[in-house]
Amino acid sequence: MSRLNKIISGVLLGLLVVLAVVLLVPMFPISGNFSIRVVQSGSMEPTIKTGSVVLIKPLSGYKVGDIITFEGNFKDSKGRKIPTTHRIVDVKVDVGSVFYQTKGDANDSVDQNLIASNKVIGKVLVSVPYAGYVVAGAQTSYGLLAIVVIPATVIIFEHVKKIVAEVKNSKKEKEQAVV
What we know:
Its main location: membrane. With 179 residues, the chain is of the alpha+beta class. It contains 3 helices and 7 strands, in the order H-E-E-E-E-E-E-E-H-H. Strand 4 and strand 5 form a beta hairpin.
């Protein structure tokens, strides 16, 4: 196998491993009660870009300036609630219950509804720009084909070529030994 083929195989294998981690991590609980979500709108731009993956951790309380993810009122095409990620601009207490006034950084006005503390999923600790596009793309048939099947096929093909070459060399050595 040429040096270029080894490099390409190594890069493709590395991409497969990274992709597997990105796809599988959201399916399993992460130690420390963290969760991972994909940001689906531009309401937090430029702070958090559309398509970013955010790492979220539930805390006992939140303060003004924290970026939180909470159970939103929007639903996807399957009827599942889509979480919202916005910044806290005010904290209100009413009869012992805590509510958060939130606002997307790109929005002109605050969110219409106050967010009850029990609706908060957690505080955003880290965002990875555009990583969500890879996750979303990989979950489609064509994305899976492009990101997993094609590179895996290339790697398998390269290994089969190597095995065939080894078998041919072995046959030549046997023929030369007989003569």
